[in-house]
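Field: COMPLEX_INPUT
Field: COMPONENT_COUNT = two
Field: RESIDUE_TOTAL = 918
Field: MODE = joint
Values follow.
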Amino acid sequence: MADLSVNFAGIRAPNPFWLASAPPTNSGAQIHRAFEHGWGGAVWKTIGAPVLNISNRYAGLSIAGQRLLAINNVELISDRPLDVNLREIAEIKRLWPDRAVIVSAMVDASPEAWREIVMMIEDTGADGIELNYGCPQGMSERGMGAAVGQVPEMCELNTHWVTSVTKLPVIVKLTPNVTRITEPAHAAIAGGAHALSLINTINSIMSVDLDTLQITPSIGGRGTHGGYAGPAVKPIALNMLTELLTDDLVLRSGVPVCGMGGIQTWKDAAEFLLLGAGAVQVCTAAMHYGYRIVEDMIDGLSNWMDDKGFATIPELTGRALPQVSSFGELDLGYQAVARIDPDKCIQCNLCYVACNDTAHQCIDLVAGNGVRVDPGYDMRVNGKAVADTRPTPVVREPDCVGCALCANVCPVDGCITMVSVPGTQQSVSWDALTAQRPEIASSWDAMMAYRAEQGIEIH
Amino acid sequence: MTDHTLVDDALPDRNHSPDTQYPYDLRFAPTHPPLSAHEATVEAHRCLYCYDAPCIQACPTHIDIPTFIRKIATDNLRGSARTILEANFLGGTCARVCPVEELCEGACVLNAEEKPIAIGRLQRHAVDHVQERGVQLFQPGTPTGRRVAVVGSGPAGLSVSAELAKLGHAVTLLEKRELGGGLSTYGIIVLREPVEVSLREVDAVRALGVTVETGRELTSRDTLDALLSEYGAVFLGLGLGAVPAMGIPGEEHLIDGLQYIEDSKIRPASLADAQNVVVIGAGNTAIDAATVARRRGADVTMLYRRTEAEMTAYRHEYEFALSEGIQYRFLTQPVRVLSEGGQVTGVECVRMVLGAVDPGGRPTPRPLPGSEFVVPCGAVIKAIGQEKPALAAELGLNVEGGYIAVNQDMQTSLPRVYAGGDCVRVRGTASTVMAVQDGKYAAAAIHGQLSAAQETAHG
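Field: COMPLEX_OUTPUT
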């Protein structure tokens, strides 16, 4: 049985599954219930300046009948009075000493405002502070949240105000609504941050209702941008996490990163951990299904770690990072081709149409007698037996560029695989090649000459 | 109501839908209820949207099934219905009566791994959507000044009428009975298709400008010649005749299976109830008649002179009958109907043994001498096939195996006379969907003939 405990910037927890600062961590009663379900920690919903929330607050993304692949919110920070939150934080920490209790905060950009709230948070006995530099909606217009996170100087200054007055670990939560995520990260580190977390929500308009012609959510006939989260944002979050954990300055600083963004299952969490997250935070999945999902997260991660021989979380943290490269470092000589397993193929021909219409026209339809045929059917023939004489898609391997579109559209697990084959081109990266022969990058004639040398034929 | 087989004939008014003109008996509630909007969406999203899909080819009318299903998935129900009805004007009936296991669903690629898409039920979802709202998807074509008479308003007649009307020809549809729709109206049990659905299709043809004249019967060569003098072409959709006589003592007590089904739809109160009902035959009509009797509370036994292996009923129909609690007695030949005072008391049968294989590929049954026994019952229904169109000879048409002989264009041996549906047998087995396709072929041929004639006239 794997040990799931974590020590994240000095904050200890029995497992890496923490609830993110959001509606699921709005009150002591909620967090108490969440901890009963097994969550390893919780980041208290952001406390700070007085706010008025609005109705309604959420819009959902449904695709193919599946609900809530993402959520978009125009909710603000906690609308409960500061003293109520602080009292409940202290109570929760007293009741759950082994769990990570972190308090998210957001106040006006002044040293006094930050000092005041930091002192109050310290008094609760909480394990750490998370600075919310992320929320893109509502608070940014008041100079807080993403308004801080998007300006590195503000990010550094605000962080410094906090780290200079507290002995608690300080996590800076970054907004993804920037061009280069490393810039606010560097600023937070310069400001003395002990850890980083990302991603906060992404600016979004979820949808327009085609019956009412209203933007959703429609708030009295008006709509605004909201913060986008949920399974649909996971790839963006994984990329930003990877950008931080492959950045020299971040690596040298040694600050851990807490990953979040679309984590719905233990598998999602394992991916974040493999790309270097020291712990993970979850929000939308809990909003969709309730706190109970953590049981499978813990159980599934533990079973997978046992299967893979990982005894502890640090053993697997960052294990996938060494593969991360720039395009220029990839091997141009590597060649993969698609191969279709005829026994698994159900002849939906989606690979055929995808390749033929939008890729490289290297899949043929082949009849039972081995003859290449065109799609189409005999109008006078019908009945279920026609399914037995369907032509089968077959890859013309010499023409396959290995784009993998067919493997991605194939609905059958393991039917189309990308298989490594000996390449025709020398094994060399673009960076190395253009360092030796810079003209290849600037002259089509030089490029064509190189291709001729290598026997590369573009179909 | 806990047991629908025990209800009294006199059903409460609440079971009589105000929307239906014909008595609605809950015991005949459709076997497959309509899909809810959510069910339809989820099911539509299961469809892989195959390219050059086998279901399209398997359908005798070649409905573009993946396209209509995709349109359901995108909430484009009107577009979906149009895709269906363009290929098959009787898409509403076919959605209910087609042997989908033998056709589209039987060819679905998902049969390889899981269960096929419920194509029939999805088709019904889309077509019902427009037909229940009275949406007219098609318009009569620009008038050509050409006239066509169609005899018989069953599926073939409706199909050819609709296609010709869309091409601008003036169509007069003659129907000998009181209601249009033919087999769909009179011969399909309510469990599959209520009368209203069939009549909606007659109305849809009317809406295309087709003149429907009921109570008009074609009885002689003279009437046909009269039609030919008045119309540019005549299409015969005559269907088949009554269940043939068995030539056994007590024949007069036998109930015609088709008449029984008709009565169950049009005048259910007239059906005599018996505790024990015997059905002679094992085809699909026999199963339908048995189902009606069973749903009306009778113990039903089907007698068939061969074995399960030789039955003409579809496998799924046989299994459906078994699930309804219908009994089968194979290798049993009725030889006499027993009665007392005009009331049927039983059927005397003889056991059969299978002998040599006949030219049709089925073993010939022969009686086992001295094996006579009696099956006690209060009513006997015969459903041993239908008489071939006797009118064909009267009209001077060539016949093939008793059916009206036609070529691939559905032309009979008489110039300008076409035929289709059950009265011909161009391909495979008789079914509504085949009749619809016959109508399409005939319409194309008639259109070609009329257009050529018009050019000559103008030339």
